[in-house]
Structures are given as structure tokens and as C-alpha cells.
Amino acid sequence: MNELLAIFIFFFAVIDPIGTVPVFIATTRGDCEQFKRKVAYKAVAVSAVVLLFFVLAGELLLNAIKIPLSAFQIAGGIVLLLFALSMIFGESKPETEIKSVRDSTATAIFPLAIPSIASPGAMLGAVLMTRNNEYTWVEQSITSAVMLAVLAVVLVLLLLATHVHKLIGDSGASIISRIMGLILTSVAVTNILDGIAHYFGLQVFS
């Protein structure tokens, strides 16, 4: 149970459902409710396909280009760490991605589905949390189900976006995004340390 909760918190941090709400509102500002619902369903569906692709094929791609998983884990941990630090010290996720809406004629897929929901951190996390040499296909399936559960939370929040935004406001979303960044920092450091330990462990026994 604790492991499932840890996985849920991890994906909640990297996907950041609450931080996506202001992005969704900016993307669909002025549109009718029916159109907003279509955008919400489409964005979450695209995000699910992208993240499941990384679960199924991410490690295979690494093996094809002969990159050891430990090296990817270290690199992924560093990227996650930088991503998390940007959430804490830089502009929060909503502020950054809302700007991309104002500065371009982006569709609902960008920046909503990618990179707001299926963020680079979420893609890396999907690979790192389903490593073939550490987890059975049953455990990977459970992890994927938890990830989809977080995406379901995203969908509910997007469908209730107007009410959620009125409740927490832009500042509330910014605060929550920074808290998620702090949690993600500890996860990133853990991945880096595990990757280093795994790499040198392989070196010792090879």
C-alpha cells in the first residue's frame, strides 16, 4: 500500500495536475463548454498514449542504442533535478506554460498535452519506474495503472477547471507547483544515487 502511495505521489509530482489547470484555462479562454470538454479529453488521451509508449518502449530504445539503464537513470535523475529546481526557484509551471499560450497560436495539444501533462519529467519517470531488470510485468502494469489514475485526476480537474481555479487562484497553483517541485527534488536525488550505485555494482561484478 505504501509503495502504491509513493508511486502515486511521484507521478502526481511530475505530472502536476493542479498546475495544469491554469494552462488549460488560458488555452481554452473564450471557448464554449462543449469545446473545453473535447480539449480536456483529447489532451489527457494524448498524454496517456505518450506516457504508455515510454513505459513499453522507452527501455527498448535505450537498449537499441546501447545506453545502460544506470546511465539513463543518472541522466534522468539530473534532468528531473533541474526540472524540480526550476519548479521551486524559477517561474512555476502555470506561469511558464501560460506564456507559451500568449506568445503563440498553439493548439490544445501544445502546451496542454505536451509538455504540461506529459512533461519531460513524466516521460523519464515512466521509464525509471518500470525498469525491466527490477520490476516484473505485473509490477509494471500496476505502476502504469497508478500513472493512469493520476491522469484521471488530471481529467477531473480539467473538467472542473473553472471551479478549481476560482478556489485556489494562480497563486495557489504556483504554491502547489513549488511544493511538488520539492518532493520531486528528493525523488531525483534518489534516482541519481541509485543509478551510481547500480553502475559501480555492475563494474565490480563484471
From TrEMBL:
The keyword Transmembrane helix applies. It is found in: Cell membrane. InterPro entries: Multi_antbiot-R_MarC. It is a multi-pass membrane protein. The chain crosses the membrane at residues 6-27, 39-57, 69-89, 109-129, 141-161, 182-201. Keywords: Cell membrane, Membrane, Transmembrane, Transmembrane helix. GO terms for cellular component: plasma membrane. NCBIfam families: NAAT family transporter. Belongs to the UPF0056 (MarC) family. This is UPF0056 membrane protein. It comes from Pseudoalteromonas porphyrae. The lineage of its organism: Bacteria, Pseudomonadati, Pseudomonadota, Gammaproteobacteria, Alteromonadales.
